[in-house]
Amino acid sequence: MTQQTLDRPRARQGRHRPVTTARPATRRPNPRRLSPRTLVITAVAWLLAAVFLLPYAQMVITALRPADELRDATFLPRHFAWSNFIDVWRESSLGGNLRVTLLVATGSTLLVLVVALPAAYYTARMKFRGRKLFLLLVLVTQMFQPTSLLVGLYREFYQLDMLNSVWTLVLCNAAFNLAFAIWILSAYIGSIPVALEEAAMIDGLSRFQALIRVTLPLALPGVVTAVIFTFIAAWNEFVMGLTLSTVPDSQPLTVGINNFIGNYTVQWNYLFAGSIVAILPVVVLFAFIERQVVSGLTAGSVK
Q: Is the CA virtual torsion 236, 246, 113, 274 positive or negative?
């Protein structure tokens, strides 16, 4: 065989090249274009937000209405009376009511924190007899409504000559919010590894110092959650303040706002102006610590 015949297959292989078929180009989804499902969910979310925000918008608009336009059927007033927020302080004891509410909410929150933190730490770290029973009793106390205990509370504080006192409201609000704080703090402290405290005690710290320097900073979201819920509950409390405080100067803000509702007339502009003053501090406070509240509520859900 000659060298030509040996090179023929190679030549044929070089002539017949594999045919490559072009793949159809895949279209990438446009991130700016929303799917119909996303549009429907967004529309429903905006609708629900409007439903929930519409009463607050009506409250703000009514608070800015002049007294002679309160019976008008229009949604917006012809003139905005910004002076309603000034007159509501002059013509009522709302300033004193706000001071009482601040004292009651702050005092109740501090008392709950001082009592709930050691109790939650002990139940989370110590395995003692009756631990589950103790937590069950704490949960049972949360089931009682303050309204069902008002008669007994009024009789007790009347005999102790403690009616119309800020300390009375502080004790009552702290007692009804203590169970929730213990449960939240116990769950959060239980999710913190014990080895961190043991390492701190090996370095020479006592158990109390380890609690203050190690556990408490790590449990800060749970502490903030207990603080904010106790503060809001004490701030918005109405029934006990109405029953245990009969003097206008010793009544909390929720009861002071209720005084704008008379037997025959209702001062709607002052009523809603006072309501805005009452809800604004809580809304601002919750907006600043929302992330830590959510972190504290989800404590112990993931191991």
A: positive
Statement to judge: residues 252 and 167 lie in one domain = yes
Reduced 3-state DSSP string for 4-25: HHHHHHHHHHHHCCCCCCCCCC
Closest CA to 184 of 150, 155, 149, 142: 142
Look at residues 240, 120, 130, 106 and name the one whose alpha carbon lies nearest to residue 178: 120
Answer yes or no: are the C-beta atoms of 81 and 65 closer than 8 Å.
yes
Within the chain, which residues score under 50 in pLDDT? 2, 6, 11-14, 300-303
Are the CB atoms for 84 and 273 separated by under 8 Å?
A: yes
Task: Identify whether 21 is part of a domain.
Answer: no
Residue 111: per-residue pLDDT = 94
Task: Please check whether residue 166 is in contact with residue 107, taking contact to mean a CB–CB distance below 8 angstroms.
Answer: yes
Per-residue model confidence (pLDDT) at position 170: 93
Query: Are residues 77 and 115 both part of a single domain?
Result: no
Let me know if residue 26 belongs to a domain.
no
Work out the angle at residue 245's Cα, subtended by the Cα atoms of residues 180 and 250, and round it to the nearest 5 degrees. Answer: 100
Task: Map 37-71 to HEC letters.
Answer: HHHHHHHHHHHHHHHHHHHHHHHHHHHCCCHHHCC
Q: Are residues 187 and 258 in the same domain?
A: yes
Q: Which residues make Cβ contacts (< 8 Å) with residue 9, sequence separation at least 6?
A: none
Overall number of domains in the chain: 2
CATH number at residue 194: 1.10.3720.10
> H helices of 126-263, where?
131-141, 150-159, 166-190, 194-202, 207-210, 216-218, 220-236, 239-244, 253-258
- Do 141 and 116 share a domain, yes or no? yes
What angle, rounded to 10 degrees, do the helices at 268-288 and 220-236 form? 170
Quote the domain boundaries for residue 180: 92-297
Q: Are 296 and 222 in contact (CB under 8 A)?
A: yes
